[in-house]
Design brief:
Family (chain B): Belongs to the binding-protein-dependent transport system permease family. OppBC subfamily.
Number of strands of chain C: 20
Distance between the termini of chain A: 5 Å
InterPro entries (chain B): BP-dependent_transpt_permease (IPR050366), MetI-like (IPR000515), MetI-like_sf (IPR035906), OppC_N (IPR025966)
Pfam family, one (chain B): BPD_transp_1
Largest interface: A-B, 46 and 34 residues
Number of helices of chain C: 19
Oligomer: heterotrimer
Strand content of chain C: 25-35%
Largest sheet of chain A: none
Order of helices and strands of chain A: HHHHHHHHHHH
Strand order of the largest sheet of chain C: 6-7-8-3-9-10
CATH class of the largest domain in chain A: Mainly Alpha
CATH topology of the largest domain in chain C: Rossmann fold
Main location (chain B): membrane
Low-confidence stretches of chain C: none
Strand content of chain A: under 5%
Mean pLDDT of chain A: 84
Membrane topology (chain B): Multi-pass membrane protein
Chains: A mainly alpha (307), B alpha+beta (372), C alpha/beta (538)
Chain lengths: 307, 372, 538
């Protein structure tokens, strides 16, 4: 097990390296730079700034410097918000994004699993069809349609929730974003759960359990459910990644100062270090989450042994 | 022997024919198919029949709500008239409406003539301006103009452009990108996946390791970077989208190719001495087609969503060109004052996505050989 | 010792709602089980024999429904409430299934699964249930039961899992044990052990056993009474001895006659040697990779030598994993191998794909699975003429069509079917198509890889006869790979017994069957052919 984690971490290194390199050079090949836009900067100031941030060095030197800094956990200063380092910006934005993301993930897994079970146990009945309809809608309607519709209904028409803003983390400000983030995932989890539960209920060992006269509770919960939950466990990794993507939209629409929103602004402003920082942080999160999920899987399934 | 050879053989029912029959029996999928065809036709042909250009700005009709009856509404005539007359720099003495024409009596400090009529014609509300009569000193005149009957079934946007023609144009773009980028993704995916699946061994291992690494990239972020940095052009747009979505296709095709290779009918062909080309042509491609078709129908909505997503962020198609994502983005910013700007494009996008999903599901049910 | 009737099934009907409408799988059958007796329900696939018992246990799939009466000691199981039913299921009537690999829950330990029904039905404490579980594992003769309690199903072999299933079924001392093809998925030697165990347990515990099976050998050695089913109906019933001695119904007669018979004479000593392998070796690499250590080498075929003469049939016998299929493929150069292989006077050992291609028409292969070996998107005509495209490319479409017609006639299929697709045929017909595909090239050597194993007995016999006729007509040589000794005995004149990649014993058929020398061969023969009864009925 330890060896497995070690091996996974080891294989994550080249992946991270590819990501950093690809992102670094992609930004640099692009036309434009952080200081040569319509900022009204005089050429001298621009030259000064570029020299200060080492932007005049050969590109490979900049690259190695960046890598070196990164290894020391230093993401560099933000070019666009010169008073802050990227790390400081993350200190503000990351907790917000992570809080939204994890709440949405928890909600999606809980609600989705329950809906999926309800549907599977009532296969081809009303309960099943309503869950299927909900799931189809949830996975078809994109986030950027759900979010404004939630704003329109709950914010403007019924005036139950604020239209946007973070409100220093007041819970009422979080409802809209979390709902928007989790709806598509609820749909996907419900579909997945329904399918795997139906398959699980049809499996031979369930027939055995019934033939042994075990109670419905034991058959469904102890034997069918545990096997059916496995695909959900492995879906949690991709789901977390999808939530990070969703955060871009949600943070933009609901005007929330998380890292998803930073990213779009930073990319538009050629804020190299902030763009790089976001990519690195998100890649780390994705990789770490997938690893956690895989380890968790081994606890659920005795057939999986990592060694 | 020759007798039997002459009797016409019974015609069999291929799996394709079976699948088609099953698809036809699937009401949701068939309805969706017709809906999608109708949607595509309306988007392609529709703009020719809508009397408004998607770029035309109607200054008199900014943020006009959708209506089935013609504009201008009675209360709007006066406003429009006052605006036009104000631009003539004259004063209204009185005005009246007779049927489809308005008659305006104006006075001015300078003599009035035909040239003043142009201001009426320039307005989006009036047409066929005429100088009915002029007073002797030329300082008072009666003008008349027809009220231009205009329909804005979906209303107009912030700058006074007809939303119907814009939605239809946006549909063309979104569907075209969906299809083109879908094809890009399928082609890359199939070629890559099939190569990996057939070469097998080390090549396969390396190729799939590359896919694994690409999978762990935060891809949306890369697409955003691509689009931001390299300008927002149409071609790049679907190249970027297609380049992201080929990964799933490659995995599916590789898996299928590997499993088909292991099938006994391929081993049987090898035992017959059939060359690789024959095996690919006669055994692999026909059996691979099903999953590819299914995945393609599920890919197109993903592409449309991704394009809309980028457009929503302002990174996609640029003004005055438009796509559903662009329209929804504008709509989202105006939900307080003009919710139709959100609702119409959102309905078009979502209903199309639904239709595509149902077709995809229907095709999967129809083609899935699990029942066999 | 026929006791009172404890289970009686009256006018049982089972229907399934399917996409093609309602299908009646069981059409109003009657049967009964007396205390302590062994009843066999015999039939081929699709006869409804399994569904009868599934319906009795309320285990039908969700699209199935049953009507009629299943009376167990005065209670109709079909109308019993869930909790009442669960006092009978697993307590008074229990069941074991065909698929030992999947019938246990993979996520729980054996101990956990064994203790669950014990605690449920008898209300024992954890410790008591654990002691009981241990006792049961000992009863079904699982070595080291203490350790096995903590094992997961995937850590055990198929035979051991079936023993655990039996232990679970017998945990509450039931009146009736229903065994649904309990040994079909197992190797012959394991089959015999499981059957012996069941017989012994029945002697000890005295429960009635209902045996659902297609295997008449098991019925003959095991059952007191027999029900023969076909198309959802019972066509004949009676005492086992009487039924075997004088079957009344035509179908029963056909089933009894379906055991392949006849023997093959050895070819003349002067017959030319066609295919020869010397010290053939095949190795597979398993696992390995980055940080996972070097791959494991599995020697699937270990220095085996075979000599096949014209008109000869060599039977290659072995259990799963013995390497018999791998050997067949290696001899045709479809797998990379070491050692010498000759065909006629050509050395194939170093031949690559291109060099092998012209020889392929003379060396053909027929597979086990008649569903997997035909491409589902090609017509039968296209399938059987594919080889002609390679070996006689000059043929016109019309000539190819004519050859297809001839080939279909030769294997006993109507040539009118040549534009149909494989899924429109039954298993036996499909195997005929696969044979036609090989025969159209007029080969000299055909490797038959379990060609009859996926088929019902009665169909098996027809295929065996077809293969014999083709051999006689065309002087073919066969390499007949099978685990089914009855079929091998009927087909071959020489036998090679394989185990774990090595030859255990070889010799002329009559010698191997008549006087096996090696212990392994003896167990194999005893398991398959021996006619002694497992149990003596009173």
């Amino acid at each position: 097990m330890f060896l497995y984690v070690f091996r996974r971490l080891l294989t994550a290194i080249p992946t991270m390296f590819v990501i950093v390199t690809l992102a670094f050079f992609l930004i640099r090949v692009a036309p434009g730079g952080p200081f040569n836009q319509e900022r009204g900067l005089s050429p001298e100031i621009k030259a000064n700034l570029e020299a200060q941030f080492g932007l005049n060095d050969p590109i490979w030197l900049q690259y190695f410097n960046y890598l070196k800094n990164l290894l020391h956990g230093n993401f560099g200063p933000s070019y666009n918000l010169p008073d802050f380092t990227v790390t400081e910006l993350f200190a503000n934005g990351l907790p917000i994004s992570v809080q939204l993301g994890l709440s949405a993930l928890a909600l999606a897994l809980a609600v989705g699993t329950v809906l999926g079970i309800v549907a599977a146990l009532n296969q081809n009945k009303l309960g099943d069809y309503s869950v299927i309809a909900l799931a189809t809608a949830g996975s078809t309607i994109p986030t950027f349609v759900i979010a404004p519709v939630i704003q329109l209904l709950f914010g403007l028409t019924w005036k139950l929730l604020p239209i946007g803003g973070w409100g220093d983390g007041a819970w009422i400000n979080k409802i809209g974003p979390i709902l928007t983030l989790s709806l598509p995932q609820i749909a996907i989890v419900a579909r997945l759960m329904r399918g795997s539960m139906i398959e699980s209920l049809r499996s031979n060992h369930i027939r055995t359990a019934r033939a042994l006269g075990l109670s419905d509770w034991s058959v469904v919960v102890k034997h069918a459910l545990r096997g059916a939950v496995l695909p959900i466990v492995s879906y949690a990794g991709p789901a977390a990644a999808a939530l990070l993507t969703g955060s871009i939209i949600v943070e933009t629409i609901f005007a929330i100062p998380g890292i998803g929103r930073y990213f779009v602004d930073a990319a538009l402003n050629r804020d190299y270090t902030l763009v790089m920082g976001t990519v690195v942080v998100i890649a780390i999160f994705t990789i770490a989450f997938n690893l956690i999920v895989d380890i968790l899987y081994a606890f659920f399934d005795p057939r999986v042994r990592y060694d | 022997m020759t007798d039997t050879a002459m009797t016409a053989p019974v015609v069999g029912r291929s799996l394709w024919a079976d699948a088609w029959a099953r698809l036809k029996a699937n009401k949701a999928a068939m309805f969706s198919l017709f809906y999608l065809i109708a949607m595509a036709t309306v988007c392609i042909v529709g703009p020719f029949f809508v009397p408004h250009q998607y770029t035309t700005i109607y200054a008199d009709y900014v943020r006009t709500p959708p209506s089935l009856s013609a504009y201008p509404k009675p209360e709007m005539i006066e406003t429009a008239m006052t605006d036009a007359v104000k631009r003539m720099r004259v004063d209204v003495k009185e005005w009246r409406q007779e049927g489809e024409r308005v008659f305006i009596t104006v006075t001015s400090s300078k003599p009035l003539d035909e040239r003043n009529i142009r201001y009426l014609d320039r307005s989006d509300t009036f047409d066929n301006g005429k100088l009915e009569s002029t007073s002797a000193d030329g300082l008072t005149a009666v003008m008349s103009a027809t009220i231009k009957q205009q329909y804005f079934l979906f209303g107009t946007d912030n700058t006074g452009r007809d939303l119907l023609s814009r939605t239809l144009m946006a549909g063309r773009i979104s569907l075209a990108i969906g299809l083109l980028a879908g094809i890009v993704a399928v082609v890359i995916g199939v070629v890559y996946g099939a190569t990996a699946g057939f070469m097998g061994g080390k090549t396969d291992e390396v190729m799939m390791r590359i896919v694994d690494v690409l999978y762990s990239l935060p891809f949306i972020f890369f697409v955003i970077m691509l689009v931001v940095f390299f300008g927002r052009n149409f071609v790049l747009m679907f190249l970027a989208v297609g380049a992201v979505l080929w990964l799933d296709m490659a995995r599916i095709v590789r898996g299928q190719a590997l499993s088909i290779r292991r099938q006994e009918y391929v081993q049987a062909a090898e035992a017959l001495g059939v060359r690789s080309r024959g095996i690919v042509q006669r055994h692999v491609i026909p059996n691979l087609l099903g999953p590819v078709v299914i995945y393609m129908t599920l890919l197109v909505p993903q592409v449309i969503i991704l394009e809309s997503f980028l457009s929503f962020l302002g990174l996609g198609v640029q003004e005055p060109m438009t796509s559903w994502g662009v329209l929804i983005s504008v709509g989202a910013k105006n939900i307080g004052t003009a919710n139709w700007l959100l609702l119409f494009p959102a309905f078009f996008l979502v209903s199309t996505l639904f239709a595509l999903n149902f077709i995809g599901d229907g095709l999967r049910d129809a083609l899935d050989p699990k029942d066999r | 010792m026929a006791g009172e009737t404890i289970l009686s099934v009256k006018d049982l009907r089972v229907r399934f709602r399917t996409l093609d409408g309602v299908v009646e799988a069981v059409k109003g059958i009657n049967l009964h089980v007396d205390a302590g007796e062994t009843v066999a329900v015999v039939g081929e696939s699709g006869s409804g024999k399994s569904q009868t018992m599934m319906a009795a246990m309320s285990l039908l799939a969700s699209n199935g429904e049953a009507s009629g009466v299943v009376d167990y000691r005065g209670k109709n199981l079909l109308t019993l409430g869930k909790s009442e039913l669960n006092k009978v299921r697993g307590r008074k009537i229990s069941m074991i299934f065909q698929e030992p690999m999947t019938s246990l829950d993979p996520l729980y330990t054996i101990g956990n699964q064994l203790m669950e029904p014990i605690r449920k039905h008898r209300g024992l404490s954890g410790a008591e249930a654990r002691a009981e579980a241990l006792r049961l594992l000992e009863l079904v003769k699982i070595p080291d039961p203490e350790r096995r309690l903590k094992s997961y199903p995937h850590e055990m072999s198929g035979g051991q899992r079936q023993r655990v299933m039996i232990a679970m079924a017998l945990a509450n001392d039931p009146d009736i044990l229903i065994a649904d093809e309990p040994t079909t998925a197992l190797d012959v030697t394991i089959q015999a052990q499981i059957l012996m165990l069941l017989a012994e347990l029945q002697r000890k515990l005295g429960m009635a056993i209902v045996f659902i099976t297609h295997d008449l050998g098991i019925v003959r050695r095991f059952a007191d009474r027999v029900y023969v089913m076909r198309y959802g109906e019972v066509v004949e019933e009676g005492k086992a001895d009487e039924l075997f001695a004088s079957p009344q119904h035509d179908y029963t007669k056909m089933l009894l006659a379906a055991e392949p018979t006849g023997r093959k004479a050895a070819p003349a000593d002067t017959a030319p040697i066609l295919l020869e392998g010397r010290n053939v070796e095949v190795e597979f690499r398993i696992g390995g990779g980055f940080l996972a250590g070097p791959p494991m080498l599995l020697r699937a075929v270990d220095r085996i030598s075979v000599t096949l003469k014209q008109c000869q049939t060599i039977g290659i016998v072995g259990e799963s994993g013995s390497g018999k299929s791998t050997l067949g493929r290696a001899l045709l150069r479809l797998l990379p191998s070491q050692g010498m292989i000759r065909f006629g006077d050509k050395d194939l050992s170093k031949a690559d794909r291109a060099e092998m291609r012209p020889l392929r028409r003379e060396l053909q292969l027929v597979f086990q699975d008649p569903f997997g070996s035909l491409s589902p998107r090609m017509t039968v005509g296209q399938i059987i003429t594919e080889g002609l495209l390679v070996h006689e490319p000059s043929l016109s479409t019309k000539e190819r069509d004519k050859r297809a017609v001839e080939a279909l006639l030769e294997v006993g299929l109507s040539p009118e079917t040549r534009n149909r697709y494989p899924h429109e045929f039954s298993g036996g017909q499909r195997q005929r198509i696969a044979i036609a595909r090989a025969m159209i090239l007029k080969p000299k050597v055909v490797v038959l890889d379990e060609p009859t194993s996926a088929l019902d007995r009665s169909v098996q016999k027809q295929i065996v006869e077809l293969l014999r006729k083709l051999q006689a007509d065309h002087d073919l040589s066969y390499l007949f790979i099978s685990h089914d000794l009855a079929v091998v005995r009927a087909m071959s004149d020489y036998i090679i017994v394989m185990k774990q990649g090595k030859i255990v014993e070889e010799g002329p058929t009559e010698e191997i069957f008549g006087a096996p020398r090696e212990a392994y061969t003896k167990t194999l023969m005893a398991a398959a052919i021996d006619e002694t009864k497992f149990r003596q009925s009173a």
